[in-house]
Amino acid sequence: MTKIETVLLTGKTHTTISGRERVNLALSSPGNDAQPQQLFSDVVAHPTAERLFAGAWSACFISAIELAAKAQKVALPSDLSVDIEVDLGMTGGAYFLQARIDVSMPGVAHEVAKAVVHAADEMCPYSKATRGNIDVAINVR
Question: In sequence order, what are the residues at sequence separation of 6 or more whose Cβ sits closer than 8 angstroms to the Cβ of residue 97?
Answer without folding.
Answer: 50, 86, 87, 88, 89, 130, 134
